[in-house]
Every structure is written in structure tokens, then in C-alpha cells.
Specification:
The complex is a heterodimer of chains A (136) and B (393).
Chain A: H1 19-25, E1 30-34, E2 40-41, E3 56-60, E4 64-73, E5 86-92, E6 97-102, E7 116-123, E8 129-135
Parallel strand pairs in A: 6-8
Antiparallel strand pairs in A: 1-2, 1-3, 4-5, 4-7, 5-6, 7-8
Chain B: E1 5-12, H1 23-38, E2 47-51, H2 62-69, E3 77-80, H3 86-99, E4 105-113, H4 119-126, H5 142-156, H6 161-175, E5 204-207, E6 209-210, E7 219-228, H7 229-235, E8 240-249, H8 265-278, E9 287-289, H9 295-304, H10 313-318, H11 335-339, H12 346-358, E10 373-380, E11 385-392
Parallel strand pairs in B: 2-3, 2-4, 9-10
Antiparallel strand pairs in B: 1-7, 1-8, 4-7, 5-6, 8-11, 10-11
Helix pairs in contact in B: 3-12, 6-9, 8-9
The chains are: A mainly beta (136), B alpha/beta (393).
Bound molecules: zinc ion.
Residues 34, 36-37, 39, 48, 50-51, 53 of chain A line the site of zinc ion.
Chain lengths: 136, 393
């Protein structure tokens, strides 16, 4: 339980990585790292795809990276219409990447591929927890 | 290159909005045409494979229902799914069964009645087309994912909106002559001009993707009948052989993907495998069908298939090299953009076009010079699955 609180609207109730949401409420955006082989994952996984271990730990994601690409959604799936338009993008940290929405205070015309960006936890007014890409 | 398995019959329904019949009746349209094309009866068929994207189907486990309606019981039947590439995956499985000696003749039937569900239901499913645990909670949808690739291409490879528009104009050129296409109008630059109040294609969907950059939903069916060499020679005057098959998969989550400016990895990985198996190179391909669910997808396919160097796909459309008279004709049946994209039927429809081209029977769509080698590139999801199949006379 607990994962239904993730994102604008969650489609997953139960997952072994639900602690991700608790970490968001503590202000942390974390991935998982395998205790056996050291493989790092984001989004988090409960099982290591490299060595098959289930012995995983949490680690804090880098706070700054570069925007690899982005899109501005003018239409939305059912349940997201009120947010339109919203920008979503991909951040490259070198070793890992992260997909999320961009902060509302980043104007679409100021968003550029390759720009420096930061990652921040985000709480919506209805209590849903997420993270977003913000100005560096 | 081995000539062990051939296509002996192809069929396709018209691709339409709101098909006036049930799914079994829709399937029968492609089946009837393919059976008549092959000149065989149901007694000659040893097994059948049905392919669709199940989120659009109300019928659970459709294979048994459709096999009965097509008169293909008591032969074995089953279902294969890789979303938009389902029917080319079905062809790969049929090829394997024939090559293994399990069956002599196998029917692969792809279908989709997208209008089976309401547009509200479709909207809801659309958001769950990719990673529902980690990405759908942000409000993702198909055009937004392809827009991530388009944006990277524009920033790093010099791709322009005009290049994407010109892919759509090309598909319109051929779509208007394809009587099975859902969108049969030509497309002009003014359709993409945002300052023109009547521009049908200029509206932003997921920037930089506009209305005209996206393919049309449709209801439709396709059928491909495969046979071993002995039966192919017995039944068919013009068998078209499968020379190479490649398939690949990729991470569903965008965060786990390689460089977006290099396109879909399933495209180049499946192509490499297919070329290797066929013992051919991109220069040998005389005509191709690629998965242009969005205009950017066709540009990425040019590169993944080796028709253009990485990052240079735009040059092919600028030089009109992929028109019918060009160096490598691509999607001269209108592609997904104009012909329409009834998910599970699409791969089989692409194969039908290439088979007709190699038999010199493509009518107004025929590429001049009697092409002898053709290629089909069919992608499932946002590059989640990819099949590349090479055919020869
Ligand atoms: Zn491990």
C-alpha cells in the first residue's frame, strides 16, 4: 500500500518499492542500488536485473543534470486534462536518466535541450507526491 | 539466402473509421482475399495465428472465436501480441513453426476494431500505453513519447518541422491513390500553416508533434498465408520468400534508453539481425514499408534501416529519395499516416504491400523496375518491440 499516492494519478497500488513515496515526503528522490553487484536503477526496482539479487538499498539521485529532450503536452489522457499544457522531459545525469514533468515556473519558451536542470520532490494540493524537473 | 518459407497469399480489408460489422466479419474480409489470392481452401491450412492489441477488444481470447468463423477448426490456433507490431510477430512465429517442420501452411491474421470502445475509454487506455507504474502518473501518451525523439532530432540532428511535414505530404501523395486507405486526401504545406485558420494539421498535440504528424486510427484486418517450399511451389505461381527476420525489444521506461537523437534501438537492432540472416545490405532493398505512426518515426526508420547515416534521415525526404521514383521508395501505399493504423492489422498490411510490389501487382502504387527485394519495418509501442522482415522473389 501507499503507492497510489505517487504522481498526479497512480495506476499502481502495491509495489515493493512503495518506500519511494515515503522518501519523497522526506524531500528525497531516490533510486535503488544492488547490495550484491552495485548496479544502480532509476526508476527504483526491487530486484536486480544484472545479478538477480533481491537485496537492494536506496540511494539519493544526483540533484543536477542536463535536459536531454522534452515535450509540451497540449492534449492529455483521461484524468489529466486540467493540467494542460504541461511539459515533460528527460534528464541525463551521465550514469542514470530520469523522466518527469517540468516545473510550472519553467516557461515553455525558456526550455532548451542541453540546459542544466535540478530535480525536486513535489507535493500536489490534493496530497499526491511526485518529483519534478526545475531550474538549476 | 535460404528459400524455405514463402508468402503465398495476402489480403487486407479497407481501413475505415467505424467498421459496420463485428470483429469476426472484419477478420473475414482479409482472410477471404488472402485465401483467394493463394488459391487454397481451409483444408490446406494447418494452423492459424491471430494478432491484435487486446485493450481494444471486448472479446476475450479471440483466436478460438475467429478460427471458428474462418472455418479453421479443428486445426491449432493461438494469439500473439506485441501491440502495433503484433502481426509481424505472428509472421515470425509462423515462419518458425514451418521451418521447424511442425506445419506446412499457416494463416496469420491481424485485426483491430479500434471503434469497439468509446473514445473516452480509448483516452483512458492511451495513457497506459507505456510504463503505468513510473511514467503514466505524469500524464504521458503516445504522441508525447514520440515528441521526445522529435525534439532531440530537432536539437541535435538539424531536423525541421518542414522535414516532418514533407513526410506527411509524401504519405498523402500515395494515400489518395490507395483505395484501402482511411485518409484519402492529399496534404499541402498550407495544411500545416498555423496562421491559416483552415489548416487541418497545424494544431499542437505534443510539441513538436502536430495533428498532421500523427497517423489515423482505423478499423481493419490483414492476412498473410505462409507455406514451406514444397507447398509454396505447388500452390503459388509467384511465391515471395522470407529471406531475413530480425526482432528486438527495448526498455519501456524512457529513463533506461540510449541517446534519443539516434532513434529507436529496436529499429537498428532488428534491422542488423535481418540483414545478417538474409546476407543483404541496405543498398539491396528496392522498396520498403516502415512504421510511420508519426512523421518522426519514418525519419528514424530511414536511419535505423541504414538507408541514411545516423542523424541524416532528413536528407532522404529533402531529396525526395523515398518517393516512388527515388533511390529507395518508402511507404508508397500511404503508410500508417494515410492508410491508417489499425494496431494489430498493420504489420500484415505492410507485408501485403511489399508482396504485391515484388509480384509487380501493386497497381497505381507499383514501384517501377520490377523490385526483387523488399523490406518491412514494424514497431510496437514506443519502440518497445521491433520486427524487420526482408522479402525476395
Ligand atoms: Zn545485482
Amino acid at each position: 500500500m501507499g503507492f497510489e499516492k505517487f504522481g498526479r494519478k497512480s495506476f499502481t497500488g502495491v509495489t515493493k518499492t512503495a518506500k519511494f513515496v515515503d522518501l519523497l515526503t522526506e524531500g528525497k528522490v531516490e533510486g535503488t542500488v544492488c547490495k550484491q553487484c552495485g548496479a544502480k536503477f532509476f526508476p527504483p526496482r526491487a530486484d536486480c536485473a544484472s545479478c538477480l539479487s533481491k537485496d537492494m538499498d536506496w540511494f539519493e539521485m544526483p540533484k543536477k543534470g542536463k535536459l536531454e529532450t522534452f515535450t509540451i503536452a497540449y492534449y492529455a489522457p483521461f484524468g489529466f486534462e486540467k493540467d494542460c499544457p504541461y511539459t515533460m522531459g528527460l534528464v541525463d545525469f551521465g550514469e542514470l536518466k530520469l523522466f518527469a514533468r517540468l516545473s510550472k515556473d519553467l516557461k515553455p519558451e525558456d526550455v532548451k535541450v542541453g540546459m542544466d536542470v535540478a530535480i525536486k520532490p513535489l507535493q500536489y494540493e490534493d496530497g499526491q507526491m511526485s518529483f519534478e524537473i526545475a531550474k538549476a | 539466402m535460404a528459400k524455405d518459407v514463402a508468402v503465398i497469399g495476402v489480403g487486407q480489408s479497407s481501413f475505415v473509421r467505424g467498421y459496420e460489422g463485428s470483429i469476426r466479419e472484419l477478420a473475414f474480409e482479409a482472410f477471404r482475399e488472402a485465401m483467394q489470392d493463394a488459391g487454397i481452401t481451409q483444408k490446406n491450412v494447418d494452423a492459424s495465428i491471430f494478432c491484435s492489441a487486446p485493450e481494444y477488444d471486448k472479446q476475450r481470447s479471440p483466436a478460438g472465436v475467429l478460427a471458428e468463423y474462418l472455418g479453421l477448426i479443428p486445426q491449432p490456433t493461438f494469439y500473439i501480441e506485441t501491440v502495433c507490431s503484433s502481426s509481424s510477430s505472428g509472421v515470425k512465429v509462423a515462419y518458425s513453426m514451418i521451418k521447424a517442420g511442425l506445419h506446412d501452411v499457416v494463416v496469420v491474421l491481424g485485426f483491430q476494431k479500434m471503434s469497439e470502445i468509446t473514445s473516452a475509454e480509448s483516452q483512458e487506455r492511451m495513457g497506459r500505453g507505456a510504463d503505468i507504474q513510473w511514467e503514466a502518473p505524469f500524464g504521458t501518451m503516445m504522441p508525447a513519447y514520440y515528441a521526445l525523439y522529435a525534439q532531440a532530432y530537432m536539437a541535435k540532428n538539424g531536423l525541421t518541422h518542414d522535414d516532418m511535414m514533407n513526410v506527411r505530404i509524401k504519405s498523402g501523395t500515395y494515400g489518395q491513390t490507395n483505395e484501402r486507405a482511411v485518409y484519402r486526401k492529399g496534404v499541402k504545406a498550407s495544411d500545416f500553416d498555423a496562421s491559416n485558420p483552415d489548416a487541418r494539421m497545424a494544431g499542437a498535440v505534443a510539441w513538436p508533434i502536430r495533428v498532421g504528424d500523427a497517423c489515423a486510427n482505423a478499423d481493419g484486418s490483414s492476412c498473410v498465408i505462409l507455406a514451406n517450399a514444397e507447398k509454396a511451389k505447388a500452390f503459388s505461381k509467384k511465391p515471395v520468400w522470407i529471406l531475413g527476420i530480425g526482432a528486438a525489444s527495448e526498455a519501456v521506461n524512457m529513463a533506461a534508453r540510449p541517446d534519443f537523437a539516434k532513434g529507436l534501438s529496436v529499429g537498428y537492432n532488428a534491422a542488423a539481425e535481418a540483414y545478417k540472416m538474409a546476407g543483404l545490405t541496405p543498398k539491396d532493398i528496392k522498396v520498403a514499408e516502415v512504421h510511420d505512426c508519426f512523421t518522426i518515426a519514418e525519419i528514424m526508420a530511414y536511419e535505423g534501416l541504414g538507408f541514411a547515416p545516423m542523424g541524416e534521415g532528413k536528407q532522404l525526404i529533402r531529396e525526395k529519395a523515398t518517393y516512388k521514383e527515388g533511390r529507395i521508395p518508402v511507404n508508397v501505399d500511404g503508410g500508417l499516416l494515410s492508410k491508417g493504423h489499425p494496431i494489430g492489422a498493420t504489420g500484415g498490411s505492410q507485408i501485403r504491400t511489399i508482396v504485391l510490389q515484388l509480384r509487380d501487382e501493386a497497381g497505381s502504387m507499383q514501384v517501377p523496375g520490377s523490385p526483387d527485394i523488399g523490406l518491412v519495418h514494424n514497431v510496437g509501442g514506443v519502440g518497445l518491440y521491433g520486427n524487420v522482415t526482408i522479402f525476395g522473389r
